[in-house]
Amino acid sequence: MVRAVTGRAELPHGRVLLGGIVALALAVHLVGIRKDLPYAPEIDEPLVVNAAVRIGALIDTDPGWFGHPASTLIYSLAGVYRLWSVVAYHGPLVGRDPRLVSRFLADSGEFYLLGRLLNVAFALAALPLLWAVGRRAFDDAAGLVAAWFVILSPLAVEHAQMVRSDTSAAFFGLLALWLCLRCHEQPSARRHVVAGLAIGLAVASRYFMVLLVAPFAFLSAAAWWASERRRSGWALGALALGMAAIPIGFLLAVPGFLANLPTVADNLRHEAKTSHLGADGLSPAGNLLWYLHEAIPDALSWPVALLAVAGVLLVLRDRQPKPLSLLVLVVAFLGGISLSSLHWERWLIPVLPVLALLAALPLVRFLRALGAGLRGRRLVRVVTVSLGVLVVSTPAVARIVRSSLQQLEPSTRARSPRSGTRRRSGRSRGRESASPSSAPSPRVTPSRTTPGSATTCSS
Fold it and tell me: 69 pairs with which residues across the strands?
């Protein structure tokens, strides 16, 4: 089924299959996307939406909050709000738009729904990037299977249906990783600078995406070692330029960062809290064990998690720089988030696509070897490979179907406006609960939010 061509085998109709996966992902993400709207937003959503409304209306250009910092999502959403105001309500294209704020205060549900749709767009756009990373690190088939695994993750889908920065961090992280792989293939100063800028955008989505410097440095060092110009240090100079571009990309995406350092410090102190019900009490080693033994299998399913372990072993055996860079990122990422006093399953979202790629590698190799024994029967080979992927992903398919059906049901908050109970009492350990004190309050008050149902914002 796959023609092996220098590590980038072409799959028949690969782009068509990718299009089918993206279309299916769209359907999965749209099921239950309204959740409790218009009555109550989800955790942390008001922080992003309120800031985007103020920026979109040009009431302020500063989000006033730098906790994640989520700037790529905030400014993108501000642009969506302004465009929507112009197209749907004939608002001004330039200058202040106070009517935008008035509509938000009158009925915020529309604004939250637009934010969720934008986040879904980030999730869908990440799938072709994952395929592109898979092509460069392994081959077409691995990228497609990884995309399939990702859309079956309830964790990734649920958070893509919220106005949170986890999904945009995954998107910009995959973009940066793809650019880093290109740097290894054909090193140049321009490619390193572009990759550095992309890492800066990823960090502007979630601070811990700075760990992308690990695969960036690894791939550049590998290219330098394989280069005939090792003595000149040219490759190291290009890496230095790329590293210098990271803070530039970050500051371009977070323009108010340096001007608001006291606010930044306060927000980071709040985010660095050491206690939270259900997410504390473990040492760094305990956090790491929790991610490996509970969070990753819960996010991807046990069969896929075990395949990822097999993928790690294959990558270590093959010792090829590009696949090893994926492993470097996973190790750096898991080690970095394990150092926190808290552990959250959602922190895995930006690295889930890479784990899915590692899981796809052994499955694709096994099914390809199995299909090789069926020469002359192309249809049988195709059916065999397809059935193999479906069998392995059956538990994940069952979970995503249950999760999607659950999203269609009204939560306890929607049934009882005075209830402060979190949306799904059956969620696994490590998922967040809603709390009115979960983050500093921005300066715009949304309507139709119930006290205690999510982060409540004051004027």
Answer: 206
Which residue type, as a one-letter code, is found at position 44? Answer: D
- Give the pair of three-digit tokens for residue 389: 């992927």
Q: Do the Cβ atoms of 253 and 198 come closer than 8 Å?
A: no
The reported pTM is 0.86
Euclidean distance between CA atoms 301 and 306, whole angstroms: 9
Question: 8: buried, middle or exposed (CB in 10 Å: 19+, 13-18, 0-12)?
Answer: middle
| Helical axes 321-338 vs 302-318, angle rounded to 10° | 130
For 306-329, give one letter per residue: b (16+ CB within 10 A) or e: ebbebbbeebeeeeebbbbbbbbb
The secondary structure of 310-348 as a DSSP string is HHHHHHHHH--HHHHHHHHHHHHHHHHHHTSS---GGGG
Considering just the CA atoms, what is the radius of gyration of the chain in Å? Answer: 22
Q: How far apart are CA 72 and CA 81, in angstroms?
A: 14
The pLDDT tens digits of the residues spanning 358-373 come to 999 999 888 877 766 6
Report d(CA 148, CA 394) in Å as an integer: 12
Closest-CA residue to 124 (of 283, 208, 18):
18
Q: Over range 208-212, report the average pLDDT.
A: 95
The count of structural domains within the chain is 1
Phi, psi of 93 (to 5 degrees): -80, -30
335: containing domain: 41-260+281-407
DSSP 208: G
pLDDT digits (tens, 9 = 90+) for 92-148: 988 899 999 999 999 899 999 999 999 999 999 999 999 999 999 998 889 999 999
**Cβ atoms of residues 396 and 150 within 8 Å:** no
Asked if residue 288 belongs to a domain, the reply is: yes
Q: Strand, coil or helix: what is 357?
A: helix
CA dihedral 438, 444, 449, 453 (to 10 degrees): 0
Distance CA 257, CA 213 (A): 21
23 assigned to some structural domain: no
Strand partners, 206: 69
Is residue 415's pLDDT more than 80? no
Q: Tell me if 438 is assigned to some domain.
A: no
SS3 for 259?
Answer: helix
CB distance 213 to 248 below 8 Å: no
**Spatial separation of the C-alpha atoms in residues 395 and 392, rounded to whole Å:** 8
Q: Within a domain: residue 1?
A: no
Whole-number Å distance between alpha carbons of 252 and 69: 13
Residue 251, both tokens: 């500051």
CB 432 within 8 A of CB 43: yes
